[in-house]
Write a structure and sequence with these properties.
Largest sheet: 2 strands, antiparallel
Mean pLDDT: 89
Radius of gyration: 20 Å
Number of helices: 7
Distance between the termini: 16 Å
Shape: elongated
Number of strands: 2
Strand order of the largest sheet: 1-2
Low-confidence stretches: none
Order of helices and strands: HHHHHHEEH
């Protein structure tokens, strides 16, 4: 298991456990023992969301508006894939820069979280990191589409589903690939 998958899985598990434990405590004891549950959940949501950008890009699982893309011929999809990945990489790298400035401002202010008194910058530092990793991954996706001439890739680990025949797709869905 890759570190990236472990971090994402662990974050989702933390969110689930903390929220469920708080609900049980609230229902059984009519009081929330876990005064810190919202902060821990928010921290885990930030990690899962922003660290998941690069993972989704690598797997070709990011949200896309594919109406024009799906109906385009091979060469059109190839050009669109290169453009989409390149523009997305530029945007994410720009957002990484801006969010890094935000992390620096949080560090300089010395802001802490209300319940746990943890420095706020420790929570938000995952935002520029996630944008940076996502930008790098989209650059990789763009590069593989430039380098490999006979296939279109949605991500490094994902060939375009339009290039597969119906039996390949059915087999992959059946075995869970």
């Amino acid at each position: 298991m890759r570190l990236e998958e472990f971090i994402l899985s662990f974050s989702v598990i933390v969110i689930s456990v903390v929220i469920i434990a708080n609900i049980i405590a609230r229902e059984i004891f009519n009081s929330s023992f876990f005064y810190w549950n919202l902060e821990v959940s928010k921290f885990a949501i930030v990690i899962a969301t922003f660290m998941g950008i690069g993972y989704a890009a690598r797997k070709g699982r990011h949200i896309s508006m594919s109406a024009f893309y799906d109906f385009a011929p091979f060469k059109g999809r190839k050009v669109l894939s290169i453009l989409i990945h390149g523009i997305t990489a530029i945007l994410l790298l720009g957002l990484a820069y801006l969010s890094f400035e935000y992390v620096q401002s949080e560090y300089e202010k010395g802001t802490v979280t209300p319940a746990l008194q943890i420095p706020q910058y420790l929570m938000v530092m995952f935002i520029p990191l996630g944008f940076l990793l996502g930008g790098i991954q989209f650059l990789r996706n763009m590069w593989i589409n430039i380098r490999v001439k006979d296939k279109v890739y949605l991500g490094i680990d994902a060939e375009d589903y339009n290039d597969k025949d119906k039996t390949e797709i059915d087999i992959e869905e059946h075995i869970g690939v």
